[in-house]
């Protein structure tokens, strides 16, 4: 049933204002195919800073465990075009996770489609539990969850590589379904780049200040905050639980 498909995005720390146009495109896409749509815009400022991207994994897992059959996660800076087809167009038997590769020729988790299956839940849990484990240099992206997603996706038989048009991070000429202006070639605007630099700077300062005042390891602090913010968001947004 289509109403058991969730389109999910997270826009915190100012992203909810910076990417209003993109978020509206997510809603239009969901309405077109009768999907449930939820843009998470609160808490307005995440104590996780730029590491709030880990929330995509914990919230996707919670939504699937609640009964959603499919969850499509879209980064706040992705624009869904009018030609984007129904998700059923890509479904394959025995395949439960779908991603496209970005400009580095590695999986980009800015567009992540998950189908409800025990293997999906186990995979999400494995990645989340490895949050503070160092990934191999060939998989590292410097911050966030994407390096872990890359590492844990290698040679996994139930993961499918989507066509680039589902998550286009570098080809301006491509007739794409979803255009992603992330940290790569698509993000060229001065104001956009300046905004992201400010977010990264403030995030680092907040994290350092919080750790110093609490007198505990950043690992312990972040584990607590990820769990707490996940629960807070689930309490704010009832759509994340399939009723």
TrEMBL record:
Q: Which residues form the Nucleotide-diphospho-sugar transferase domain?
A: 38-134
What is the protein named?
A: Nucleotide-diphospho-sugar transferase domain-containing protein
What Gene3D superfamilies does the annotation carry?
Spore Coat Polysaccharide Biosynthesis Protein SpsA, Chain A
Organism of provenance: Colwellia psychrerythraea (strain 34H / ATCC BAA-681) (Vibrio psychroerythus)
Q: What is the lineage of its organism?
A: Bacteria, Pseudomonadati, Pseudomonadota, Gammaproteobacteria, Alteromonadales
